[in-house]
Amino acid sequence: MIKIGLTGSIAVGKSFVLDIFKIKYNIPVFSSDECVRKIYAENIELKKFIKEKILECDRKFTSEDIASIVFKDSAKLQILENFIHPLVKMEREEFINQEFDKQSQLVVIEVPLLFEKNLEYEFDSIILVDVGEDIQEERALLRKNMTREKYLSIKAKQIPNNEKIERCDFVINNHDEKATINNIGNIINELKRQVR
Question: Which residue in 87, 75, 91 sits closest to 46, CA to CA?
């Protein structure tokens, strides 16, 4: 089974690309972003941890409350990541094991911070999703509760895509839907040739 890491900076369209792998090409996928959302929604220990270590008070909170704190306080961001990332890794490994048992040829695992967290060794092939900076910023600013300041802060914490390109096996320029779909099909064909 070939494990494909899918990465890219904020608002380049990783979720869209992941959906194409899943829906159009029937490739099993794992979304780290979806996993994190699920953990936030369901993990009672995380909620308690956030109240104690991030908010430092016992009150209701939203993901926006947490984001506004951790993007201004790198120490608290690190504390939060140290709690969440092992949970995501456990879910990711469970997904890989299940797909291995099903004898899947390929799996695609979306990891936004793949290079930032030095996870490239976990994958057989890495795909970078990229888009022009103007489109990237425009997409980011359409998100709920996103400001230009927050967008630039998030982007500054990520390795620039032009540096990631050198470390990837494939690049998908996600500026045109039809071209993106065709590009993904070509990548899948290339990877399946490697399996044979």
Answer: 87
